[in-house]
Amino acid sequence: MLRFGTDGVRAEALTQLTPAFARALGSAASRVLGGTEIAIGRDTRESGPELQQAFAEGCASEGVTVRDLGVVPTPAVAWVCAADDLPGAMLSASHNPWQDNGIKLFSAGGRKLSDADQDIIQVELDAAYEAGYPLEPVEPIVVAGSIDRYIDAVVASIDGRDFSGSTVVLDSANGSASTTAKIIFERLGATVVSLADEPDGRNINNGVGSTHPEFVQAAVLEHGADAGFAFDGDADRIAAVGRDGAVIDGDRIIAMSALDRRERGRLAHDTVVITVMTNLGFRRAMEAEGVQIVETGVGDRYVLEALDAGSFSLGGEQSGHVIHRDLATTGDGVLTAVQLFDAVQRRGVDMGNWGASVMTRFPQVLENVRMAEKIPDLKIRLEGAIAAEEAILGDSGRVLIRESGTEPVVRVMVEAADADLAQASTSRLVDAVSALG
Q: Is this model's pTM higher than 0.70 or not?
């Protein structure tokens, strides 16, 4: 049986993530999350309608009505949940290929589930299997939903300013952003060159989107656009491209946003929340500017937990998940694009040049080591090897050893001012990990 990972469940659609499982999850989630109505959205994958129907049947078995939002971004589902105090579900496998799908859950109020909430739902799923899973289908009660208010909120997030006179390239990854990104930027007055906005169920993320920024990069240069933005399949992450074709990743976007917000008095406690994967160059840049950092584990829901715990307003991940906590309850690629381009317009700068100047990226080497099985005392057994490498790197680098939460894989990451040094250090640590199993 599938089990929850870092962000819901995700697997090959209809073979591993089956309608029967989706039905059982709908039932378990409805019992745990409570309420009489649940908002459901999906991305553009071929398997989406069938899995959504099954999930809705599970909700119906618990007497819960489904508000069907249709094909929408993940953050739009979260926004509706926050606005109307509903639990929610999003069927998407994010940046994965079309063959995969997944189910992300939101508690009432639009927040992703905590580890404790996921554990409770997992217990319910386990009990369902023991009691004679799969459940019989129950015809769901479905009401039509809308994300018009979400679109209005993103447009209004820049306080009446607009993008008149600018040209922007948008790559919707043939996914959920195809229903919102162009509409939002055109309402803000921009001339939009829209790419990858004709989903057919199988072309989501196929050589396009935030994991393939070269597609939007070429279009920005071809059209002489002011900026370009690429989203992933469910539009909760972003990559940006400047007028000069420079690609701007999540670390730089967060750095730019942090400095802009602080200058306007909108960076709460002058603090930004990041993950352990954030580049050392970002840390040095924020230190130089007097911006404090709070660090979490990998996963935007951990970033959100830290944001709420400290009443902070900005956080995110290197991968392009950026959370403007005063405006949203989760990472939102389109909202981030609007916020970033507004900062660029107000400053009268080229986004690429600003992004290049805001921080110096340290070379970062990441390698995955597959183990025969998980090693409980891994960190203890690697203490000597890690200490040796940290002594070599000094203040100009860092080491991160991280075990996967879902498979017997150890991730070894080293940053250093020199790329060759980072690679050599990583290789030695990989050998040390491999020697353990």
A: yes
